[in-house]
Amino acid sequence: MHHSKVPSWQPDQAVTFSEQGQEYALWQAFKQGDRDAFATLLNHYYPILLNYGVRFQSDREFVKDCLQDLFIELWNRRENLDDVRLVKLYLLKSLRRKLLRESQRLRWFREAKEVTDDYSFEVQFAIESYLIHNEIQHEDLKKLRSQLDKLSKRQREAIYLRFFQELEYDNIADIMSINYHSAVNLVYEALKLLRKNWFLTLALTTLFIS
Amino acid sequence: MKNYLHYRLEDFVQDPYFRQWVLGQVPSEDSFWPTWEANHPEQQEILEQARTLIIAFQCEPLPTAPGEIQRAIEQILSATRPRHQPSWLRRYGWSVAASVLVVVGLSYWVLSERTVADPESRPAAAGTSTSYAGIEKVNDGEDPKVFELSDGTRITLHKHSKLRLAPDYGHSERVVYLSGEAFFEVVKNPEKPFLVYTGEVVTKVLGTSFQVVAYEEQANISVAVKTGKVTVLKQNQSAAKPSLSDEIVLTPNQQAVYIKANERLVKTLVEQPILIGRPVPYPTFEFDGTPLTEVLASFEKAYGVKIIFDEEVFKNCNLNATLTNEPLFEKLDLICETIQARYEVVDGQVVMYGKKCP
Q1: Which of B24, B58, B123, B260 could share a disulfide with B129, CB 3.0–4.6 Å?
Q2: How many CB pairs under 8 A join A and B?
Q3: Protein FecR C-terminal domain: from which residue to which, for each copy (chain B) (predicted)?
Q4: DSSP structural state of residue B60
Q5: CATH code for the structural domain at B285-353
Q6: Does B55 lie at the interface with A, CB-CB under 8 angstroms?
Q7: Is there a contact between B300 and B307 (Cβ–Cβ < 8 Å)?
Q8: Global model pTM greater than 0.90
Q9: What is the DSSP letter of A78?
Q10: Does B152 reach chain A within 8 Å, measured CB to CB?
Q11: Tens of pLDDT along B123-152?
């Protein structure tokens, strides 16, 4: 994997992060106890975080509890928080840590066993409804489904962070506590697997051309 | 200009400009990609594949109830709303509030119990009344079965066990009757205490997780707490009012055992105390010439178990050790071995005895 070739989201079309400076100001205001800034952060990030959280834990109330704890902690510790450049990255990472820790706690109680770093990551990619919508035949759909099932939970999470949350590889690595190359590999391996084994045979291509 | 001619599928999928075009985020007058595609028919297939993958990897939107997110956000905002109060209360406001709820809930219960204590109003135990039409869950098999009640409370019913819900479950209280063994994860609801009736013992909580073992053929009934606070009471059928001595409050890792033979309720520790609170999965206990008093204090904190000892006796004892995920009692064994001490568990607490260290 030549990571020098890895495309970046940012360079020419810097749309996604054009508000970075603004966001930094928002974070500073929040740290100084500005209630409006806090509300703005909440309104913007709560749905994003909830969407991420339910991938780990299907129990949505559990995720919402964690989110509530997280934001209350942030508010209470606001004066001591670091100057965060990418608020989204910081929040995703904090939520992930909290969710895994809390789920582990739950698991202890259920089966008082050795704790592992095991977690699940369930994401329903739009691919199925997309294919159904395009009247792809049953066989192809089944094939695709089995390919998607072959993706590891880490691959799924990396793909989700890359293509849905639109994060850079160094940020993905940071969130998942892995190194940069592993993050790149997770995504590329998943893409390769899908291309090699499944690919979208004639049925799909003809559909586009027609 | 990037050289898109050398792009592979993976590169297209990750190219920001291409993605924006596929996802309809470029202005309609921007005709770069349609033009490029028309000029490179040999690349058409790969472009189609990239397009499909980009769309395919979008995530299905999360279905939410109307106002769900707004309500959650408002809850957070009101929970963090600054009030004019001393700073210590602001900092610990939540835990204080939580324990107040517990206390309020308890006194409410104690008071109300006096009025409903008459045995007619509440069948004493599972299996003693046939007039109950509540839902019944039975586990005849060997493997534990998990099910969830309407309020989200989760119950793991172990082998040969039976659980019945009071017909008015969730009305003003949440009452269940158990014979056998079950693990409860009770959803917090301070207004509706959750009560488990097992023979002579009643376990009452507001929201927590705990284990109850009450097989009819066994000599003891035990209640072990994993999280939160649990009150265990002896059901005294003959006395008009429950007396306070018949009530035990348990905190995590504590266990109440009711000895049927002499009708006594005693407090002890669970067999395998687990770490409480929210530490990293397994905190490392690294001691390098650390005073024993400090060592024991760190255990107290990590396991929420009170350890009693004579500070004067142990003041010269220091410890070199790295302990991690051994059970608490194993840790204590190791230490006792090192300093020639011993310990016992009394009334849900650890008491350590030993000699002075030189």
Answers
A1: B123
A2: 137
A3: 285-350
A4: P
A5: 3.55.50.30
A6: yes
A7: yes
A8: no
A9: G
A10: yes
A11: 333 333 333 345 788 888 877 787 778 787
